[in-house]
């Protein structure tokens, strides 16, 4: 992408530790981006406090104020456009974005998921991994499409699953890697190193 620093819009519903990791990477010069706005669907999201501490503009858009998901999303789009956002990063955003949202930012919406997709999409990915008994899990940054955690993969990092892991211990180890992976993915997108929205072409297998 041209015009660095890349203007980011972050969407978060809760704790906001990935948002904080992105801010840290920007401050440390590891990510040529700036957060233009943080949007939350929850007035009590801790991410809002983190934004305030960094003097980053915020918007709270409450779903119950809108008649349907699309009208809600279009309001969020309006806020992002007003902030001249070039890339939207979902960071613990607990809503599935509508096709109308994706159409407003084609190939410009990314997400982080705490598993090695396509394994364990959806909620409680770390619990799903433990219940299945995998020996390796991890995290994935991917483009968002109309499915749930199903868009083209940008980066992944593996994390070993230990025999005595609990959902909490595994989540904590994966989170450490998320905090490195998400800023790195944004860095690569900002520098034009990631084909936007594209899946790699499938190879013919003999
Ligand atoms: C992270 O585990 C992320 O992968 C998932 O939701 C969690 C959000 O954590 N999508 P935080 O709000 O960034 O601390």
Characteristic terms for this protein:
single chain, 206 residues, alpha/beta, Rossmann fold, 6 helices, 7 strands, 34% helix, globular, binds 5-O-phosphono-beta-D-ribofuranosylamine
Detailed description of the structure:
The structure is a single chain. By secondary structure, this protein is α/β, with parallel strands linked by helices. It has one domain (6-190): Formyl transferase, N-terminal domain (Rossmann fold, 3-Layer(aba) Sandwich). Helix content is 34%, strand content 20%. It is built from six helices and seven strands. The protein has a seven-stranded mixed sheet with strand order 3-2-1-4-5-6-7, sandwiched between helices. Helix 1 packs across helix 6 (167-190). The longest helix is centred in the C-terminal third of the chain and has 24 residues, at 167-190. It is globular. The mean pLDDT is 95. 5-O-phosphono-beta-D-ribofuranosylamine binds next to helix 1, strand 5 and helix 6.
Radius of gyration: 17 Å
* Outline type: globular
The structural class is: alpha/beta
SSE topology string: EHEHEHEHEHEEH
Helix share, percent: 25-40%
Characterize the main sheet: 7 strands, mixed
If you consult CATH, what is the topology? Rossmann fold
Count all strands and give the number.
Answer: 7
Chain-averaged pLDDT = 95
Number of helices: 6
- Strand fraction: 15-25%
Strand order of the largest sheet: 3-2-1-4-5-6-7
Distinct small molecules bound, one entry per kind: 5-O-phosphono-beta-D-ribofuranosylamine
- Termini separation: 36 Å
**Overall tally of domains:** 1
Low-confidence stretches: none
Q: CATH class, anyone?
A: Alpha Beta
CATH level-four homologous superfamily name: Formyl transferase, N-terminal domain
CATH architecture: 3-Layer(aba) Sandwich
């Amino acid at each position: 992408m041209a015009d660095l620093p890349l203007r980011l819009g972050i969407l978060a519903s809760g704790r906001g530790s990935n948002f904080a990791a992105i801010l840290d990477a920007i401050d440390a010069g590891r990510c040529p981006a700036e957060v233009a706005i943080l949007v939350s669907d929850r007035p009590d999201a801790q991410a809002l406090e983190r934004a305030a501490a960094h003097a980053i503009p915020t918007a709270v858009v409450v779903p119950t104020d809108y008649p349907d998901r699309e009208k809600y999303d279009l309001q969020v789009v309006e806020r992002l456009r007003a902030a001249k956002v070039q890339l939207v990063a979902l960071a613990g955003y607990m809503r599935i974005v509508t096709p109308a949202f994706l159409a407003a930012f084609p190939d410009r919406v990314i997400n982080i998921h705490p598993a090695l997709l396509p394994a364990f999409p959806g909620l409680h990915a770390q619990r799903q991994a433990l219940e299945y008994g995998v020996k390796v899990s991890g995290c994935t940054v991917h483009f968002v499409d109309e499915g749930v955690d199903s868009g083209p993969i940008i980066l992944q990092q593996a994390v070993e699953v230990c025999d005595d892991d609990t959902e909490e211990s595994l989540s904590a180890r994966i989170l450490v890697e998320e905090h490195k992976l998400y800023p790195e993915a944004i860095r690569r997108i900002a520098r034009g190193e990631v084909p936007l929205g594209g899946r790699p072409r499938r190879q013919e297998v003999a």
